[in-house]
Design goal:
Keywords: Metal-binding, Oxidoreductase. The protein folds into three domains: 142 residues, Sandwich (Immunoglobulin-like); 155 residues, Sandwich (Immunoglobulin-like); 128 residues, Immunoglobulin-like (Sandwich), CATH 2.60.40. The protein contains four helices and 34 strands. About 5% of the residues have low confidence.
Length: 462
């Protein structure tokens, strides 16, 4: 079981990934490599990561600039590096079509002209994504324009600007990470019994006696978090997947599904510690969709105020980056997608008999599902089957127009690339980058076991 919420930390200080700042050099290197990581107990787990044994560095990229990347594969299996949240052309996206063979490297050019945002990168080899991400092939990207001081935002890495990768993992009695996927885990997605933040269990984040910025990345395979602070202080939402909101929004709780990112400000000027907690949201193919936290509450991360840390920001900003453009026009093409599941005899089946599919068709890397026009806008109506599905689209950003016919939650009112489908959502999508049929964009459920099982499609943009 995941630990219950508590107000006392363990004394172990949370560590942060190494920062690779490419804003000046305009280049960086990643190496997919093996490692041995001791998460808990005395036994180490054979893991994989980028530039280290588990997970990867945080990469800082400059928007309105061209950055050269080099991704090397020293493992004995194909890997990739999908830039989840970057608006780059299809050949540089890092999806299944850009798999890197053992001993080879890939040199994409990341020419960014998108707003500042928190994105992430992870391996995306079809059929292996869930296992490779589980054992460590993932990291975080900061896209910046260098103007956070003007916005009044905390920006000192690992001091008042905290990168927090949330993952749940399973460990055996020896303390080794395990990933045994049977029918239940395949259908519902993997959910572990131990909470990790930045690959660490039971650590506490030291924070200054001021305003702290937390970049929260849901890197779990399937777990959906409903986050809040145990002392009921607000989480001030300032950014979603694709960038800043027009102003901070104070929330008592927020939902974060696999693949989603948010940036929140937390005010520690009163000098009091706090605990980030989550309700345990049930999301079962056997039990249907359950929106309540019926499974209890567990600790995600303890925050401990350290008065020796410098305080840069002690007030919340009033405004951010201005309103979003209005994409709600009815005079745009409409596309309908259903995220389909099969439970065996008597249940819905795809045309090929696969367990997972979209519009009845499981993923086929050699088949293009549709094409769309560059610089066009479409309205997608996406419906989930039997349970909640985080739905991600590569190479685009979108606005959530409605969620089951209602106004979207605050977490879904900014630019997005991943959205939790709990019934039906309506999206307005802009196609700003090209993707040829030889290197198309993906759209898929971000429950990684569903994605590997076929709940994915691909499209070109020209």
């Amino acid at each position: 079981m995941l630990p219950s919420a508590a107000l006392s930390g363990t004394g172990r200080k949370l560590e942060y990934p190494e920062l690779l700042d490419a804003t000046t050099s305009r280049r960086f290197q990643l190496k997919a490599q093996s490692g041995a990581t001791r998460f808990r107990g005395s036994s180490a787990t054979e893991t994989i990561g980028y530039n280290q044994g588990y997970l990867g560095p945080t990469i800082r990229l400059l928007t309105d600039a061209e950055t050269l990347a080099e991704v090397q594969n020293t493992l004995d299996e194909p890997v990739s590096s999908h830039w989840h949240g970057l608006l780059v052309p299809g050949p540089f996206d890092g999806g299944p079509h850009q798999a890197i063979a053992p001993g080879r490297s890939w040199d994409p050019v990341l020419n960014l002209d998108q707003p500042p945002a928190t994105a992430w990168y992870h391996s995306h080899v079809h059929g292996s994504t869930a296992r490779q991400v589980m054992f460590g092939l993932a990291g975080v990207l900061h896209v910046t324009d260098g103007e956070d001081d003007e916005r009044g935002l905390p920006s000192t890495y690992a001091v008042d600007d905290l990168t927090l990768v949330l993952q749940d993992r399973q460990f055996n009695w020896r303390g080794r990470m395990t990933y045994d996927v049977g029918m239940h885990q395949s259908m519902n997605g993997f959910r572990g019994d131990t909470m990790l933040v930045n690959g660490q269990a039971g650590a506490s984040a030291a924070v200054p006696k001021g305003v702290v910025r937390c970049r929260l990345v849901n890197g779990s395979n399937a777990r959906i978090y409903r986050l809040s602070l145990a002392d009921d202080r607000p989480l001030h939402l300032v950014a979603t997947d694709g960038g800043f909101l027009d102003r901070p929004v104070a929330l008592t709780r927020m939902v974060l599904a696999p693949g989603e990112r948010v940036e929140v400000l937390i005010d520690f000027t009163d000098g009091r510690d706090s605990v980030l907690v989550s309700d345990d949201i049930a999301n079962s193919a056997m039990g249907g969709m359950m929106g309540s936290g019926s499974g209890g509450r567990f600790t995600v991360l303890h925050f401990a105020v350290d008065t020796t840390l410098p305080v840069r920001i002690d007030t919340l900003p009033d405004a951010m980056d201005g309103p979003l453009p209005d994409l709600s026009s009815n005079n745009i093409p409409v596309r309908r997608l259903t995220l389909d599941m099969s439970m065996g005899m008597g249940m819905m089946m795809s045309r090929s008999g696969n367990q997972f599919s979209i519009n009845g068709a499981p993923y086929d890397q050699n088949a293009l599902n549709f094409s769309t026009k560059l610089n066009s806008t479409e309205r997608w109506i996406v419906r989930g089957d039997m349970m909640m599905h985080p739905f991600h689209i590569h190479g685009v950003r979108f606005q959530v127009l409605s969620d089951n016919g209602r106004q979207p939650r605050a977490e879904n009112r900014g630019w997005k690339d991943t959205v939790l489908v709990a019934g039906e959502v309506e999206l307005a999508i802009t196609f700003e980058k090209p993707a040829p049929s030889s290197a198309p964009y993906m759209y898929h459920c971000h429950i990684l076991e569903h994605e590997d099982g076929g709940m994915m499609g691909q499209f070109s943009v020209s």
